Fold this sequence. Notes:
Chain A contains 7 helices and no strands. Chain A is mainly α. Chain A is elongated. In chain B, a hairpin with a 2-residue loop joins strand 2 (58-65) and strand 3. Chains A and B meet through helix 1 and helix 4 of A and helix 2, strand 1, helix 3 and helix 5 of B.
Amino acid sequence: MTENLPKTEIADRLNLIESMIAEGRRKQESWGWTFVLWGVAYYIAFFWSWLGSSNYAWPVTMIAASVLTMLIIRKRRGRNPATTMGRAIGSIWAAMGISMFVVLFAMGYSSRISNAHAMIAAFTGMVGMANAACSMILRWKAQFVCALVWWAAAIAACYCGDAMLMPVFLVAVFLGQIVFGGGMMISESRQRSRSAAHA
Amino acid sequence: MPELPELNPVVHGKLRLAVLSLLIGVDEAEFTWLRSKTGSTDGNLGAQLMKLEEAGYVAVEKRFVDRKPQSLYRVTEAGREALAEYVRALRELLGAAIASGQ
């Protein structure tokens, strides 16, 4: 097996191994849709609870959005390979979702915290933390800017007046979810077109 | 003169080498993704994956998603070691080839 293996053939094989490993590690997943989906879910929950004065608006919308996200991810699984990076990012969002669900609902329903400013600050602070962690893993400055938007909203929620609280939250959702997710979807679609053109 | 290393014949096949290298970079991958990345046919890829599976270098999980069959492949620890050993052997051979001016 080792005889008559020319230098060029050996180099070719080493190049093949390197290029295939790089191909496998290249960013495969597209996550822009999740940001848009959750942005829309936050708006639905917000307007439902505001206009309908319902205590079920947030729990029902958040559970529905979680189920929908899981169903779409399950359907898409297999189309792209699972990577360690993808698992790390998914874990951060899942852990944030569980923390938010447990802490905010316990706070809300126990009536220990009836202050909407504290609730919004805790919510936006947690979303900022998840975005920041992902941006550090991915070394992606745009997502760190998104984290800054959420942290700014958390600070603003602590200091703004009652009348400004909801506009602060809605603007943070718009910039951090809809604009960021929409931009991500456009860039992912361009990347897919480029890959298809090179194939 | 030092003895030249033997290359593992299971890993040496070009398509098998490409598949093993692709799987090293991911946790698990579907058959159709491997086919698109290697540009091979269903039959050829299936046969090479079978050889890798028989050697214990890849593991497969077969399941149904929306009533469609799906085969997910992942590299095993033995597969990782075999590829690492193969790369080491290639490097040694390359060194020997350069030294002999081949």
